[in-house]
Design goal:
Layout (H helix, E strand, L loop, with lengths): L1 E6 L6 H11 L3 H8 L7 E10 L2 E10 L9 H10 L4 H22 L14 H17 L3 E4 L2 E2 L1 E2 L1 E4 L2 E4 L3 H6 L5 E2 L5 E2 L3 H10 L1 E2 L7 E9 L10 E8 L7 H8 L61
Parallel strand pairs: 1-4, 4-11, 5-9
Antiparallel strand pairs: 1-13, 2-3, 6-10, 7-8, 12-13
Helix pairs in contact: 1-5, 2-5, 3-4, 4-5, 4-7
């Protein structure tokens, strides 16, 4: 069977995910064509070859043009995804990541879900990062996604709410029950979007894996840091069921192979969930009634985006 192993030693972000998955073999032109099915104008996806500490990788930038973007809440993003002519499994996984972001921000700031606000570019970069990552992963056709511990960094980060400790409260809330590494590297190594994608797509494991690597991809963050090569590494590999973590297989039997508990209260949003998890190669069949507001997708700081519209230089 085919697995994708995520090695987030240098952290994770939405654009690092996109770069890594394209670098490991996802078709960039198809990815752009599929993202156009969101029917949201005002952005382009740009690919470039780059190096970080002499390691070659792929940099993907979501470039937002100078046209004003509407202030989108979660309900707007859900509507965009729901109306897109994309595979149901891709859409469901993207929705799970969006909800992970929204609920973490609501929890971190102790506000109702509908009071959480988007802060960057009307959520467009967040939407493209999440849906694009789910599309690229779908292209690769893996059976399981696993991840090692994710690095968080240290210090503080400036965001729309002010200056916050690293990791940002939303990031840490998303990564509850996920193994993390608190490093001494200054700055935000893992963004809320990166954390939401990890928590949604991957089963975390500390156990040694027996696998045969077939292809390796590196997705670059924006900053070329001296302390560490700023790259998200992913490994496409073959393995057999006997070498997969027993905890993951037990959770798969229970219908949650990625190891996350989703006893979320979506009542305020009118959204009923009966999930299984898209990162593990399952199809999803859900009925949604979305009347949501939300924000939170826009906390990609310090190293990950070079947008042309209302963005920090990371």
């Amino acid at each position: 069977m085919k697995i994708l192993y995520i090695d987030p030693v240098a952290g994770a972000s939405g654009d690092m995910f996109l770069g890594a998955l394209v670098d490991v073999g996802a078709d960039f032109d198809k990815l752009k064509a599929d993202l156009a099915k969101l029917n949201v104008p005002g952005f382009d996806l740009v690919r470039s070859a780059t190096t970080r500490q002499s390691i070659a990788g792929t940099k993907i930038d979501v470039v937002v043009n100078d046209e004003p973007q509407p202030h989108r809440h979660l309900g707007d993003l859900v509507g965009i995804i729901g109306a897109a002519n994309l595979p149901d499994g891709v859409k469901e996984t993207a929705l799970q990541a969006l909800y992970a972001l929204a609920q973490a921000e609501a929890e971190a700031h102790r506000v109702p879900l509908h009071d959480v606000h988007l802060h960057e570019v009307g959520g467009l970069d967040c939407l493209v990062d999440i849906v694009g990552t789910c599309l690229a992963l779908d292209q690769l056709g893996v059976d399981y996604v696993l991840s090692g511990p994710v690095s968080l960094g240290t210090g503080t980060v400036a965001c729309a709410h002010g200056r916050m400790p690293v990791p940002a409260p939303g990031t840490l809330a998303i990564l509850k029950d996920f193994p993390v590494r608190k490093t001494q590297n200054e700055g935000e190594m893992t963004t809320p979007t990166g954390a939401a994608l990890l928590a949604t797509l991957a089963f975390p494991t500390l156990a040694p894996l027996v696998m045969t690597p077939r292809r390796i991809g590196y997705g670059a963050g924006t900053k070329d840091k001296r302390e560490i090569a700023n790259l998200l590494r992913v490994v496409l590999a073959d393995t057999t069921r006997q070498f997969l973590p027993a905890e993951m297989l037990a959770l798969e039997h229970e219908g949650d192979c990625c190891g996350h508990d989703h006893d979320h209260d979506h009542g305020c949003c009118g959204h009923d969930h009966d999930h299984e998890h898209g990162g593990c190669g399952h199809d999803h069949h859900h009925d949604h009634d979305h009347k949501h507001e939300h924000g939170c997708c826009g906390h990609d700081h310090d190293h990950d985006h070079e947008h042309k519209h209302h963005h920090h230089e990371h």
